[in-house]
């Protein structure tokens, strides 16, 4: 019982001091609610990997425990913004525009929900699913509200960015550090489970199912390797962005990178492997270029490092050669056909996209403009999903939101942080080719949290919020 007051006191030490321009009593009340809402929000964000349900997939029409957690976490984020905005200058115009775009998309969802009864004939083709890759059937009456809720929860961390703009130090560097380390720690637990699955200690929860093939795929504590890959991508990114602030040192840093990258490889999730490799290559390329520019690049060190990595790769292949070979063969075979016009293109994704295009060809102008309000089939592409759910208007609004957020963040950070920001958006675009990142709330939580890290760790020398300088220490 004595540890709880001590923990509370430690957390209160992270609270920023009141500004001289604030009314003392009101400022302390608002600041207190905002601060504890921020703490709760970051706690949910960092604990989410460990709190995700392990077990059978609950199904498309069920709100599981993980969904409830993201809803609660999103609510705390919104409370932090609302209380932090009281007696404060308005939000930056860029953030206001993004919130306005989200509100318009919610209005489109409401319109689609009201129009369900009149679209029975248009929605009829979506009741027929030719293959498993089309996903389970989702009734429109469930799908439309769920998409609206998912939109709100996914972009909720924008509220924390809004708090950062109001109080430059409200989300202090230490809070960001603790949150980042907690996320990486949760990922390591999933890595351990994934390797135990490889060793046969823990049962697989996902399988390659093809003619003559029934092969387990490591997914950690998740039901699908994609969920594991998503977490690993952002953890690698977080480790590079916070290299100096996390204070892990080069040995621990690269040991963690090796574990995360190795786990990504055994997951056999192709897109995750590509994204993690891309993040490592781009950050290491920048580091080597900087060392070369300062003439601190030691050829002997580089040679030893390359030889060490090659030796580790050879040992790994020697120990796990048969395991890796069998999975690499299946991984490439599962791509299906490379013929864009074939139904087997990208393991059946071509069939989904072709059938969706035909359904749109028979649709009315309002469907083209505002969408169906939900995702009848699993689109396996983020742009296609947005077009189906919110139509051309949704595509324009989503692209506008991302462009505004990118430009806003870029204007608030130093030159050093701009490469990290560019890599972050490259990950989003790459992952969206065959996945749907904006429909995965925790993907967007991590994506927006990485914005917070970049804003906190690579700030430009400028005035923010209450006029106090927000500078990197």
UniProtKB/TrEMBL annotation:
Provide the transmembrane region boundaries.
33-51, 63-83, 95-116, 148-168, 175-198, 227-243, 302-321, 383-406, 418-434, 440-461
Keyword check for Transmembrane helix, yes or no: yes
Sorted keywords for this record are:
Membrane, Transmembrane, Transmembrane helix
Query: What name has this protein been given in UniProt?
Result: Uncharacterized protein
Task: Specify the domain of life of the species encoding this protein.
Answer: Bacteria
Q: Record keywords: tRNA processing included?
A: no
Species of origin: Rhizocola hellebori
């Amino acid at each position: 019982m004595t540890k709880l007051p001590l923990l509370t006191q430690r957390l209160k030490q992270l609270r920023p001091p009141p500004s001289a321009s604030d009314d003392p009593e009101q400022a302390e009340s608002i600041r207190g609610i905002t601060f504890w809402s921020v703490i709760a929000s970051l706690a949910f964000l960092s604990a989410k990997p460990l709190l995700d349900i392990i077990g059978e997939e609950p199904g498309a029409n069920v709100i599981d425990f993980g969904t409830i957690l993201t809803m609660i976490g999103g609510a705390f984020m919104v409370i932090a913004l609302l209380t932090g905005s009281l007696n404060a200058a308005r939000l930056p115009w860029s953030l206001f525009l993004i919130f306005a775009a989200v509100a318009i998309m919610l209005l489109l969802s409401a319109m689609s929900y009201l129009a369900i009864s009149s679209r029975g004939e248009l929605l009829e083709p979506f009741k027929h699913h030719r293959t498993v890759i089309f996903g389970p059937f989702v009734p429109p009456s469930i799908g439309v509200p769920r998409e609206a809720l998912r939109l709100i929860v996914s972009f909720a961390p924008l509220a924390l960015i809004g708090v950062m703009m109001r109080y430059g130090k409200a989300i202090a560097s230490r809070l960001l550090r603790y949150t980042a380390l907690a996320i990486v720690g949760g990922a390591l637990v999933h890595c351990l489970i994934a390797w135990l699955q490889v060793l046969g200690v823990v049962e697989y929860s996902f399988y390659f199912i093809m003619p003559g093939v029934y092969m387990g795929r490591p997914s950690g504590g998740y039901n699908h390797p994609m969920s594991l890959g998503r977490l690993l991508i952002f953890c690698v990114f977080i480790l590079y962005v916070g290299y100096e602030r996390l204070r892990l040192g080069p040995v621990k840093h690269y040991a963690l990178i090796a574990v995360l990258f190795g786990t990504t490889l055994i997951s056999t999730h192709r897109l995750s492997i590509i994204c993690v490799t891309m993040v490592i290559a781009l950050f290491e390329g920048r580091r080597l270029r900087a060392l070369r520019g300062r003439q601190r690049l030691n050829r002997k060190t580089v040679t030893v490092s390359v030889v060490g990595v090659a030796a580790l790769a050879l040992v790994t292949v020697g120990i796990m050669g048969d395991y890796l070979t069998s999975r690499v063969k299946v991984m490439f075979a599962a791509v299906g056909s490379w013929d864009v016009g074939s139904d087997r293109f990208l393991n059946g994704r071509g069939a989904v996209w072709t059938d969706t295009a035909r359904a749109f060809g028979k649709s009315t102008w309002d469907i083209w403009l505002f969408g169906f309000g939900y995702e009848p089939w699993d689109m396996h592409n983020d742009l296609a999903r947005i077009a189906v759910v919110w139509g051309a208007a949704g595509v324009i609004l989503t692209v506008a939101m991302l462009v505004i957020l990118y430009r806003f963040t870029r204007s608030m950070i130093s030159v050093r942080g701009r490469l990290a920001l560019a890599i972050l958006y490259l990950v989003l675009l790459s992952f969206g080719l065959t996945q749907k990142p904006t429909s995965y709330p925790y993907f967007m939580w991590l994506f927006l949290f990485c914005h917070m890290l970049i804003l906190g760790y690579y700030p430009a020398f400028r005035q923010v919020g209450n006029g106090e300088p927000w500078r990197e220490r």
